[in-house]
Amino acid sequence: MNRSKHGPAGSYDGVVLRIRKNSAGTRVLTVFTAQKGLIRIFAGTVKQTAKQGGSPFLLLSDISFEAWEKDGGYTLSEYECRNSRAMLDLEWQTYVYSQIFTDIELALLPEAEADMRVFALLRAYCAGINTKDVRTATIVAGWQLVGLAGLFPDPENVYVYRDGRYANGMRRWHIGTARREGRLSERLSPVLKEQWESVCSYTWERGTTLRLTAAALQYLEEFLYSYVSECSERELKSLQLLC
């Protein structure tokens, strides 16, 4: 364990959810860690990392690292970064849906609250997009994050109303437990309700299958984005990437 004037560095394991640069050119990583939940790490400049011989940071990297904590901020010391095949061989659809997934994660989960269920789901998603359809994986993992946040709606007891469209043309919905006077609620088929519930119980083990109709997948995608935006009171900016 490394030491500095701030004392010994702590050891952490996490998944990189966002990579930004501040005005000084220092990279700031948003990482969900097993030990501390969602934290932000000052990771130096690209040149500093290159001099240290470190691996590049990519979205959804699996990272083990040491860092010093001061006043709620973390400064990176030694690290090992393992990038997924899907992110190394990046395709446009993978880029779009990985951005959407991290937006959902950051919208739903508070900072500095560790949750091993969330950590396990993040790792499962990162591994899953190497072999599974990234759109389906994002919809399933997104709804599972909603469930882990304690917000999963009961499909048998919700009212769903059309609420306009996003700029990209995708339908927007209001999903709630209260009836809107003078408005006609969308009729949800038994198949859609069943498949909606099934995504929350899906396990990511190799060989397990989840059968979703194309129509159900479209509804669940639209419902997910609308519901997360409404629950978090935060627009998912990455939806602009969907054409």
UniProtKB/TrEMBL annotation:
It comes from the Bacteria. This is Putative DNA repair protein RecO. It comes from Anaeroglobus geminatus F0357.
